[in-house]
Amino acid sequence: ELPANATLKYFDLEDLEEKTFLDHVSNFKISEDGSAIIVRIKNSIRILSTSKEVPKEESGKKGGWIDLTRIKISIDPILEWQQMLKEAWRLQKDYFWREDMSGVDWKRILDKYYPLVERISSRSEFSDLIWEMQGELGTSHAYELGGDYRPRPEYRMGFLGADLTYDPEKHTYKIFHVIGGDPWSEYAPPLKRPGTDAKVGDLLIAVNGQKLSKEFSPEMALVNMANQEVQLKIKSGEEIREISVKVIPDDTPLRYREWVEKNRRYVYEGTNNRVGYIHIPDMMAVGYAEFHRSFLAELDKEGLIVDVRFNSGGEVSQLLLEKLARKRIGYDLTRWMGAQPYPTDSPYGPVVALTNEYAGSDGDIFSHAFKLMKIGKLIGRRTWGGVIGIWPRAWLVDGTITTQPEMSFWFKDVGWGVENYGTDPDIEVDMKPQDHAAEKDPQLDRAIEEIMKEITDHSPLKPFSEEKE
Predict the structure, then answer these.
(1) How far apart are the two ends of the chain, measured CA to CA in Å?
(2) Where is the Tail specific protease domain (predicted)?
(3) d(C-alpha 306, C-alpha 353), whole Å
(4) Could you read off the pLDDT of 130-152 as tens digits, one per residue?
């Protein structure tokens, strides 16, 4: 359901003033001749005259309200899917970034896939068919999403933000790790709620009065409990008490925050607090915020490690690269407020970046541009290799959205070569399964080694002498 917070206004050319037509509007569209307007208000529709006052009736035909419950549609799935496949094919033909479709005979592709529609028997098979057809283009970002699928029941599990293991001697579950996180966020760590006092080594005996056992785990007790308050029976030493916590629908944000802070501490300890660390999870709003959460606190250290491993892409890479590329060339001295670096917010010392095979799309672009702009060394593994941008805006009849690769990146050194290949690091360092199991990070270790060399070879620009002429 769309919100209805907008106010629809118009300018009266006779009275020469702005007037209100209708409050609480979600969306609207005016007819071609300008005589009528259709207005969406949440999930309701009104058709109104543009030359008359809006009727005061809150329902019914006189008020212009359309009774959508009367609409009945009979759909032949095969006919609908045939039309949708042709529409998806046409959208690619009209919007794909190359008019010659990268040398693919696109009409032949339609002739190849269209007859298969009659042979499919479910909506999911139709999705597979669209993916296969668009895959003939051999390019990234050709997606098919959504559509007329039956809604599935959701039984979202609640998470405690902790790792537990079964203790056969105690016949219950022991907490061996409580995950950290941001206590102010919607994913606040449940077991770090004030008053819980749950800690490593405590036993979880029951959830909502249900005793836990080897056959009945905490995960089973928390099915369909996401975002709910639950009662936990905890045993600390000889003390047994009950606490109330609000379980969260996903503990990934907690684990992400813990991983980032663990890496930052590791860098601090490995460099005697001389080097800063930033991780950027994507190139969208979350990644932009995450970058700035750390950047201002880290830029004045002697060196900086920027980690874009697992970056899922987006569109803000150039905004971040512009800041990282700033070269500190001087300082602006004030008598009472200290020295301001010039340019403002420029890194104090050298910068290196970490990337891997899971950094893609705008993560690819960031990694390649980081090298091309000579900001510093790129360390890790070759990136994902998908840099043809999309602008999803054309829905199919059942609500499906398909994406057309419209904007392909070209670079002065490799041309179109990042697509379907990625970008190579300056220094390749693999992350083996054994490293994960041993909780080692050889990529981060190499980044620390390289940034310390850079600091030695290229000393940061220190502020001027206190003696002023």
Answers:
(1) 67
(2) 240-430
(3) 5
(4) 999 999 999 999 999 999 998 88
Arch. (CATH architecture) of 164-248: Roll (2.30)
Contacts of 60 (CB under 8 A, 6+ apart): none
Contact 299, 345 (CB under 8 A): yes
DSSP secondary structure, 312-323, as one string: --BS-HHHHHHH
What tokens appear for 65 in the block?
Answer: 């309200």
What does the alpha-carbon distance between residue 404 and residue 409 come to, in Å, rounded to a whole number? 15
CB 350 within 8 A of CB 369: no
Which residue, 362, 353, 409, 360, is CA-closest to 385? 360
Name the nearest CA neighbour of 200 among 222, 218, 175: 175
CA-derived radius of gyration, the chain: 29
**In this predicted model, what pLDDT tens digit does every residue of 434-463 receive, in sequence order?**
999 999 999 999 999 999 999 999 888 888
What does the chain come to in residues? 469
Tokens of 20: 């209100």
SS3 385: coil
Q: How far apart are CA 318 and CA 34, in angstroms?
A: 43
DSSP string, 289-341: HHHHHHHHHHTTSSEEEEE-TT---BS-HHHHHHHHT----EEEE-SSS-EEE
Q: Match 């693999």 to its residue by tokens.
A: 430
Nearest to 102, CA basis, from 131, 139, 132:
139
Cα–chain-centroid distance for residue 170? 41
Q: Which residues are catalytic?
A: 141, 361, 419
In what order do the strands lie in the sheet containing 36-41?
27-30, 36-41, 44-49, 65-66
CATH number of 77-146: 3.30.750.44
The pair of structure tokens assigned to 414 is 């490799």
SS3 content of the chain, % helix, strand, coil (to 5): 30, 25, 45
Pair of tokens at residue 216: 């009945």
Q: Give me the residue spans of the domains in the chain.
A: 6-70, 77-146, 164-248, 271-387+422-457
Opening angle at CA 43, ends 39 and 49, nearest 5: 20
Place 284 in a pLDDT band, splitting at 50, 70 and 90.
Answer: very high
Residue 299, token pair as written in the block: 């830029």
Cα 176 to the center of its chain, rounded Å: 30
The model's pTM is 0.85
Name the helix (H) or strand (E) containing 113: helix 106-113
Q: Which H/E stretch holds residue 12?
A: strand 6-12
Amino acid at 281: P
Identify whether the C-beta of residue 310 lies closer than 8 Å to the C-beta of residue 359: yes
Contact 147, 396 (CB under 8 A): yes
CATH number of 271-387+422-457: 3.90.226.10
Q: What is the mean pLDDT of residues 150-176?
A: 94
CB–CB of 422/385 below 8 Å? yes
